[in-house]
Input
Amino acid sequence: MSFASTLLAATVIAGRRHVLVEIVETDADPADEWSVEVPPFLELRLVHAALTTPGAAATVQPALGLAAGWSAGLDDLVESSTPAAAVRVQDAVVVAAPDGRLYGRSRPDAVAGEVRTRLAWVEGLT
Output
C-alpha cells in the first residue's frame, strides 16, 4: 500500500485554525496503516472514509489511534462501529497527540484499489 496526504482547506475562525486533510491509499490492505502530522492538541470533528476504487473490497471500517501499530487501550481513539462502502464518524473527540501524528487504518474487508479518508479538526482546545 502507498498513501499520500493533502491539505484541502485551512482557515482561522474565532481565533482557531480549522483544517481538512485527505489521505488517499492505493492497494489498501485490511492491515495497512497510514499517519498524518497534527498539532499536539486538537478537536477531531470528522472522519469520512470511502472506497473510491473498490478492487476486491466492498466495505471500509476506519479507525484512528495515537501510536503506530496501536491496539485497543489508551492509544485507541476513534473507530467506526459499522462497515460500509462509505463511513462517516462525526463524534467530537479531544485529542492530545504525544508525537504530533494521528495513525489511521481504513480496514477494507479485502484489498481495495483506492480508499479516500478525510479528517477535519480544529486546532487547540476549548
Remarks:
- The radius of gyration is 14 Å.
- The CA atoms of residues 35 and 103 lie 4 Å apart.
- DSSP finds no helices and ten strands in the chain.
